[in-house]
Design goal:
It contains seven helices and seven strands. The protein has 268 residues and is α/β, with parallel strands linked by helices. The chain folds into four domains: 33 residues; 113 residues, no CATH class; 43 residues; 59 residues. The termini are far apart. The relative contact order is 0.08.
């Protein structure tokens, strides 16, 4: 049976579409039989995310970005009893995740935008939430964490470098003097330490001082040990009573006492 040209073209077109679908299924770009959970994530800056970018949960690819919408009307719920106000969300990503991975996506999960390697593709990274938090369901709208602006960081680093350069140029003389003073000071300290190290006097005096301190601490230890004995306690009591008995006496009364006993002395 000879096929017509129209039949040949139709068969070729059907085969092309079939092969395209098979390749898409093998690459994971499309799988009509796979069950997924779709929700939305808002960002102010997406950092290069595109439609079709992978979505990972705990580092495993489980979905993709289905759609990117700009300036979506949303409601902001302020604290208290104030009525919600209309706001515009700069970016809203429609994200689809497999039902198995969606079990770990909760309302308190974090939604980051990461990069695979240094110059790799961008993807949405979802950290699993706590088991006590509700699961993410269809059409939920969540807030993502904006990635850092590399261009702004580079621009700010250039501004900071320019300011540092300007400060150095304006105070070049003072900085040079300060460095020279520090250099001279370190040299003088090194010389002084060298003199001390070579001097026998410092070594002898230091050793003698250490020995004296050891002797003093030993004597103090013996003295404190004796005061804890019964004789030591009696001696301390006698000293205490003697001091209290001498307190009401003045120097005139003490001088009269010595003169009465035939002792000539001069007090104060």
């Amino acid at each position: 049976m000879k096929l017509s040209n129209e039949a040949k073209v139709g068969f070729l077109l059907f085969a092309t579409l079939l092969l395209t679908g098979v390749f898409a299924w093998l690459l994971g770009a499309s799988n009509p039989f796979k069950r997924t959970v779709t929700f939305y994530v808002n960002y102010n800056f997406a950092g290069g995310i595109e439609v079709g970018s992978p979505v990972r949960v705990a580092g495993i690819k489980v979905g993709k970005v289905e759609k990117i919408s700009f300036f979506v009307a949303d409601k902001d719920f302020p604290a208290g009893d104030a009525k919600p106000t209309e706001v515009l969300t700069p970016l809203r990503l429609k994200v689809s995740v497999s039902t198995e991975a969606a079990e770990g996506v909760r309302k308190d999960s974090k939604f980051f935008i990461n990069i695979a390697g240094i110059i790799g593709e961008r993807y949405v990274e979802i950290t699993p939430g706590s088991m006590s938090s509700p699961k993410v369901t269809e059409t939920d709208v969540l807030r993502g964490i904006d990635p850092p602006r590399i261009d702004q960081l580079i621009s700010q680093s250039f501004d900071l470098a320019g300011k540092i350069k300007q400060v150095i140029e304006d105070n070049e003389g003072d900085i040079t003097k300060s460095i020279k003073l520090l250099y001279d000071l370190s040299g003088n300290i090194n010389k002084t330490l060298g003199y001390i190290d070579r001097s026998k006097m410092f070594k002898t005096d230091l050793a003698q001082l250490i020995n004296n301190l050891i002797d003093i601490t030993g004597d103090v230890k013996i003295l404190t040990a004796k005061t804890k004995t019964e004789d030591g306690k009696k001696t301390m009591d006698l000293l205490y009573k003697m001091l209290w008995r001498l307190e009401p006496l003045n120097h005139e009364a003490i001088q009269q006492f010595f003169q009465k006993e035939g002792i000539r002395t001069r007090l104060f």
